[in-house]
Amino acid sequence: MYMKYEPIVKIISGALSGPTVVICAGVHGDEPVGVLALKNVLPNLKLLRGTLVTVMANPPALAAGERFLDENLNRALTPSASSDTIEGQLALSLMPILDSADALLDIHAGMGGEPPFIICEENGFEIARRMPVSILSTGWVKAEPGSTDEYMYRQGKPAICIECGDRAEAEKMTPLAVEAIRQLLAYFGMIDGVEPGTVQQRVVAVKYPVFKKSEQFRFTRKFRGFQALKPGERIATDGAEQYCAPDYPSCIIFPWQEAPVGAEAFLVAESTDMVR
Fold first, then answer.
1. Torsion of CA 268, 240, 113, 169, to 10 degrees
2. Residue 272: which pLDDT band, with cuts at 50, 70 and 90?
3. 210: CATH
4. Is residue 53 within 8 Å of 195, Cβ to Cβ?
5. Counting Cβ atoms within 10 Å, is residue 237 exposed (0-12), middle (13-18) or buried (19+)?
6. Reported pTM
7. CA distances (Å), 162 to each of 34, 120, 139, 242, in order?
8. Residue 134 counted as domain residue
9. 48 and 167 housed in the same domain
10. Looking at the structure, do residues 102 and 219 belong to the same domain, yes or no?
11. Per-residue pLDDT tens digits for 98-148
12. According to the model, what pLDDT value does residue 79 have?
């Protein structure tokens, strides 16, 4: 029998009209922090205005505790999305939900020892300024097409992706995800009584991803996310292929030794002097 897979969606409306905001959790099934945060927030949430749409994006992967089952859902939001895969079906259901949104918060967790950080483009900087994290990264829409934030960016809408530390520490990082939800809703006037964050934020710009081509892929040493790279240093080998750091000041993001062949093994970002 053909199984149809869909996100789990809940809608909460405020007393007054206002913006529609979407919050996604569980895009990757091994990152439950957003699901835990929504379970914490929703029971007592009363909106002053607008509409909140919460989305448990990848229920089958969450149930399995796997990042994805057929393909990365956070690369599947494209015109070529196909119902032939589980994540393709989920993407086809998710895109119309985002079409109806004025803004998005997508809650994730990292895998390379990264501290918490924000992913967004310039049209989301005002919202990102409220978030209690010290790193703001941009440039992802070029490096990672098909993601939720890239899909929103194509429509000229702000999207904030918050990476809440290590995915293995979901319960520990839940308060951060809860605060991100509160700050987003407060920015749009949907709740009150929330003071914006005052954390100074360093900005880095993603330049390019590197994909694992074979099982021979190896890092030259143990890297942690946002660790500075020495200009020209060898980062990894993949068979006969060698990957070296660029000549400009840079850092590594999401180093993933165990990445499946064809998936991103790491990204290189330019370190900037910009502080917000």
1. 120
2. confident
3. 2.40.50.630
4. no
5. middle
6. 0.92
7. 10, 9, 15, 31
8. yes
9. yes
10. no
11. 999 999 999 999 887 889 999 999 999 999 999 999 999 999 999 999 999
12. 94
Classify residue 160: in a domain, yes or no.
yes
Q: What CA–CA distances, in Å, run from 194 to 80, 112, 176, 186?
A: 41, 31, 14, 6
The CB density around residue 186, as the number of other CB atoms within 10 Å, is 17
Give me the CATH number covering residue 77: 3.40.630.10
- Alpha carbon distance 48, 253 (integer Å): 38
Name the phi and psi angles at 24, rounded to 5.
-105, 140
- What tokens does 121 get? 């483009």
Q: Which amino acid is it at 167?
A: R
pLDDT category at 67 given cuts 50, 70, 90 is: very high
Of the three residues 129, 155, 187, the one that is the final residue of a domain is: 187
- The residue out of 187, 214, 234 marking a domain boundary is 187
Sheet arrangement for strand 217-219: 217-219, 234-238, 241-244
Residue range(s) defining the domain that contains residue 118: 8-187
Same domain, yes or no: 53 and 161: yes
Distance CA 201, CA 238 (A): 34
> Would 269 be classed as within a structural domain?
yes
Q: In the predicted model, what is the mean pLDDT of residues 249-261?
A: 94
